[in-house]
Write a structure and sequence with these properties.
Elements: H1 10-26, E1 31-47, E2 50-68, E3 71-77, H2 82-97, H3 130-145, E4 151-170, E5 175-193, E6 196-206, H4 215-228, E7 238-244, H5 246-259, H6 262-266, E8 285-289, E9 312-316, E10 319-320, H7 327-332, E11 347-351, H8 358-365, E12 368-375, E13 385-396, E14 399-412, H9 413-418, E15 420-423, E16 433-434, E17 438-446
Parallel strand pairs: 7-12, 11-16
Antiparallel strand pairs: 1-2, 1-4, 2-3, 4-5, 5-6, 7-17, 8-9, 8-11, 9-10, 12-13, 13-14, 14-17, 15-17
Helix pairs in contact: 1-2, 3-4
Length: about 450
């Protein structure tokens, strides 16, 4: 009988983790941690009304990391039988015995372990069949194609639903787990007028299917966005204000997060090297991590090392207050873990000057470039130099006047971060960083 993949499996998975930890102690490990996860998913894609893919996912994995006198060894297995777990532990210990000692290696400190595991409402199963998913995808794509006859092609509409459960334990006695779900709907459409062809998309993602945008809206929004890009052209090279749409603002502030990660700091590969206590953003801006938001896509009761997650400012009054640390990078820097082993959890970006709507931001900008898509990887994390292909809309008199493509925007991230003059109310909640549209005072725009 097919076993469920949900929180009901936590007691069974805890037993497996405890068994692996006992085997590690018996094999000579001075410290050990084990993590087990089960995943199950469905993804359906429809293109031009026809089913293109139906994918089922079912994964399971148990991983263990052991420390023998500060030397580290890791191994993993999808075979959860006792004999296979013993063999996995033996391999991890064998690796540790052949690995150089690292004085900074080891578990996070026992006193940092999460003592309480709050229910963050992360598990909301969607009992959807493949047939129902196909129908939703068809409806989504059809709603988009019906917007205008110039919508002539599609890269497809997709519906996905994933469910998982995870248990983590270590030799400090920490042992906890939780179930989670994630669901999404997306659509990518192409518009054509004469020889001009443009594509655009829209999507929605949430822990609960009830919080997804309607599939008809997603399709129509994808179609409207593709149509709006018809007639795109270059603009003359100039310096001008720039607005990043919220889905791009998330990545913009993500560069700051990457620069203040512990690994970037101790490797000295950051444009914000040793910047703790420095003003990195305007004084009105705050970046606050809130790991316990109910149903948050990046919420978690504990990090990848069992360390308690808690609300904390990364930036306040524009000043960098801390780095983003797990236990290893914290020890390398002579600091304490910030509960970020595995990443950031719901980093909320706000501006005390207010949260204008996008139309208000456009009027504030007056004339400039609204960026809705970025291309290429022209970001140097060490120097902060930034140069990426961009498309979007040229704005005059506070209104978009024509679409723009085939231009490059350039600057330096240190300067760009300090030139943020407003953050909009149109917050994108789909990632670990949550921000509205961001207005920058000026960037170089290289066109024709």
């Amino acid at each position: 009988m097919d076993q469920p993949v949900d929180a009901s499996r936590i007691p069974e998975l805890k037993d497996m983790v405890e068994f692996a930890l006992r085997e590690a102690r018996a094999a000579g490990a001075t410290q050990a941690e084990a993590d087990i996860s089960l995943q199950r998913g469905l993804n359906v894609t429809v293109r031009l009304g026809e089913v293109e893919t139906i994918e089922y996912q079912r994964d399971r994995a148990l991983g263990i990391t052991v420390y023998i006198d500060r030397a580290k060894g890791s191994a993993s297995s999808a075979d959860l039988r006792p004999a296979a777990v013993r063999e996995m532990v033996a391999k991890a210990c064998s690796i540790a015995r052949r690995t150089a000692r690292d004085e900074f290696a080891g578990l996070a400190d026992a006193e940092d372990m999460a003592r309480e595991i709050p229910d963050l409402s992360l598990e909301h199963p969607w009992e959807i069949t493949p047939e129902q998913a196909i129908e939703l995808a068809r409806t989504c794509e059809a709603a988009g194609m019906a917007v205008d006859k110039r919508l002539t092609n599609s890269e497809g509409a997709s519906v996905s639903s994933h469910r998982g459960v995870r248990v983590y334990g270590n030799s400090h006695g920490f042992l906890a787990g939780y179930g989670s779900t994630s669901h999404s709907v997306s659509c990518v459409l192409l518009a054509q007028s004469g020889g001009d062809m443009q594509r655009d998309y829209w999507y929605s993602a949430a822990r609960s299917a009830d919080e997804l945008e309607a599939v008809e809206y997603i399709g129509r929004r994808a179609g409207e966005r593709a149509l709006a890009r018809l007639g795109a052209r270059q603009i003359a090279t100039r310096r001008a204000p720039v607005i990043f749409a919220p889905e791009l603002a998330r990545g913009f502030f993500g560069h700051l997060v990457s620069a203040v990660r512990g690994s970037s700091q101790y490797r000295r590969s950051s444009f914000l090297l040793n910047a703790m206590g420095e003003q990195v953003l305007p004084a009105s801006i705050r970046m606050r991590e809130q790991p316990h938001l109910l149903r948050g896509l990046a919420s978690s009761p504990f990090d990848g090392e069992g360390v308690a997650t808690r609300d904390s400012d990364l930036v306040s009054d524009g000043v960098l207050r801390r780095y983003v640390l797990g236990s290893y990078s914290a020890r390398k820097l002579g600091l304490k873990t910030t509960g970020n082993a595995g990443g950031i959890h719901n980093l909320i970006v706000t501006d005390a000057r207010g949260a204008p709507t996008l139309p208000e931001l456009l009027r504030t900008m007056g004339e400039g470039f609204l960026v809705t898509e970025l291309m290429g990887q022209g970001v140097n994390g060490v120097t902060g130099d930034y140069s990426r292909g961009a498309s979007g809309y040229w704005v005059q008199g506070g209104e978009p006047v024509h679409p723009v493509h085939e231009v490059t925007i350039a600057g330096n991230l240190r300067t760009m971060l300090k030139s943020v003059s407003a953050i909009g109310s149109d917050v994108d909640v789909h990632g670990a960083v949550r921000s509205g549209s961001v207005l920058l005072d000026e960037m170089m725009i290289a066109g024709n």
